[in-house]
Amino acid sequence: MLTVQGINVYYGAIHALKDLSIQVNQGEIVTLIGANGAGKSTLLKTLSGLLKPKTGSIEFLGKSITNQSVQAIVKQGLIHCPEGRRVFANMSVEENLELGAYLQDGKSLAADFERVYSMFPRLLERKKQQAGTLSGGEQQMLAMGRAIMGHPKLLLLDEPSMGLAPLLVQDIFKIIQEVNAAGTTVLLVEQNAHQALKIAHRAYVLETGRVVLEGDASELADSEEIKMAYLGH
Amino acid sequence: MEYFIQQLINGISVGSIYALIALGYTMVYGIIKLINFAHGDVFMVGSFIGLYSAKFLANAGLPPVLVLLLSLIIAMTMSSLLGITIERLAYKPLRKSTRIAALITAIGVSFLLEYVAVLILGPQAKGFPDIMEKKQYQLFGTSIQVDSNQVMILITTIVLMIILQYIVRYTKTGKAMRAVSFDMEAARLMGINVDRTISATFAIGSALAAAAGVIFGMTYNSVDPLMGVMPGLKAFVAAVLGGIGSIPGALVGGLLLGTVETEISSLGYSSWRDGVAFAVLILILIFKPSGLFGKNVREKV
Questions:
Q1: What is the mean pLDDT of residues A33-52?
Q2: Which one, of B15, B103, B9, lies nearest residue B280 by Cα?
Q3: What is the value of pTM for the model shown?
Q4: Which of A42, A46, A47, A71 is most worth mutating to test chain B (most B CB atoms within 10 A of its CB)?
Q5: Neighbour tally for A62: CB within 10 Å
Q6: pLDDT tens for residues A188-212?
Q7: DSSP B178-194
Q8: CA angle, A27 as apex, A26 and A32 as ends, to 5°?
């Protein structure tokens, strides 16, 4: 579904991604784990078109999206739910969701609202409320709901569990599995490697802009190396 | 007391003009953090377009209300195109540069518009045609007078405010504008076309300035290529007073500034009028830089 081949991405003078290649297959949950500054968020930003690789290629659904605009990429169903939620705090929950469906023709809008509200009943309760007044967990649900409104074929999730209480983290991971079961492929960036490896099919480990390890999530979860470095035991 | 209310009514007319111009400042600032100093000159261009359309349409024998309405529409449409063009040619290439570069460019665009207008139209003031006959009305048996022009200003301003409010709150473009002004990158991730949204903002701001230009022409009967300088600066003060970036702020700031100015003049200090306006700017910047309706925003690092 997504094939990234040998991309090099620079942040000014910093060489953030070095000759990086990954692949995501239809129907998978793939997780990227790695320390802060390993380049996980940079990779997602490059996939959604916010950053452009200097060299290398990105192919999505058989077509090159390497130099396409963010808008064109979103239109093809690659949707990026950014780190830190980034909800439009000055707008209502409903308006936020509506913006998620910005490129949809509006025919499925009612059904999409219903789907997101059934997934996140809390959002329905608060649909007229300003997004800025929501709790952290609710904002994360809103950010994910907003991304789902755009009919993602591939959903990029950047740190969805960041800063949330443990119980909420469980909820969020459960929802990711549900979204995946409903047919959306997921590329998940997580600090919480333990949880991420539990729900993912495959994983890539990033270190200073390179893929240093890849494999089945369950295998990686058992590997001594990963346990030492990322799972804290 | 009646005298005070009379001046208040006069102040609301002047204030409406400031408010209409201030909206363009505040909306553009809200979306790209640029003080568009060429905005006062868009007001001037709008006024001239209104003048020539009104002359043409009146000669064609149209009834006054239609002349007014069509002149407004023509001036607003053409000025929005001017606004879009200015943004595309002058500001868009600088979107990734420092803010000061764009600000200096805005001042350059301002001079360009002013002196191209002098070149084409000549430096002399031109008389604005009397589109409608001015009538005076007595208010509720008091000595307070309202003229038909003031009524027209009020109606035009209210109608434009309702349209603006509708666009910003309920249309797709308006929602995109609010999203882009809140978080441009997140808006892009929704698939919002940021360039087009910025163009729309310039178009709406310029159209409002043009409407102010036509109203100004009808009120003061004289327009010239440098007429945009003072109202432009005053509207900037109004926008800062209300809280730059805030739409209701621009409206309240404009009305407040117009009223204060008029009251000052009516007390016999008319030569102090402009000074007071800028003193207001200084005071606001010292004591409440975020303005009446502005929020304190922390700079993102």
A1: 93
A2: B15
A3: 0.92
A4: A71
A5: 7
A6: 999 888 899 999 999 999 999 999 9
A7: HHHHH-HHHHHHTT--H
A8: 90
What is the distance between the alpha carbons of residues B31 and B83, in angstroms, rounded to a whole number?
14
- The string of DSSP letters for B276-301 reads HHHHHHHHHHHH-TTTTTPPP-PPP-
Q: Cβ contacts (< 8 Å) between B193 and chain A: which residues?
A: 71
Interval B19-76: pLDDT, tens: 999 999 999 999 999 999 999 999 999 999 999 999 999 999 899 999 999 999 999 9
Contact A168/B at CB under 8 A? no
Separation of alpha carbons B37 and B102, rounded Å: 10
pLDDT at B139: 78
In whole angstroms, give the CA distance from residue B76 to residue B160.
Answer: 11
- Give B246: exposed, middle or buried? Use CB within 10 Å, 0-12, 13-18, 19+: buried
Between B1 and A59, name the one with better pLDDT: A59
Domain residue ranges of chain A, discontinuous segments joined by +: 2-231
Q: Pick B182's closest partner by Cβ from A70, A90, A103.
A: A90
| Interchain pair A71, B189: CB under 8 A | no
Count how many residues are written for chain A.
233
Q: Write the residue in A50, A89, A100 that is nearest to B190 by C-beta.
A: A100
Q: Is the ipTM of this complex over 0.95?
A: no
To which H or E segment does residue A60 belong?
strand A55-60
Which of A50, A87, A90 minimises the CB distance to B178? A90
pLDDT for A233 equals 55
Query: In this complex, do A99 and B187 lie within 8 Å of one another by their Cβ atoms?
Result: yes
Structure tokens at B186: 């997140």
CATH number of A2-231: 3.40.50.300
Q: What are the start-end ranges of the E strands in A86-164?
A: 154-158
Q: Give me the pLDDT at residue A80, please.
A: 97
3-state secondary structure of A55: strand
Surface of B (176-195) touching A: CB under 8 A: 176, 178-179, 182-183, 185-193
Kindly report the average pLDDT of chain A as a whole number: 93
The predicted structure's pLDDT at residue B154 = 93
Span B253-273, pLDDT tens digits = 999 999 999 999 988 888 998
Residues of B in contact with A90 (CB under 8 A): 178, 182
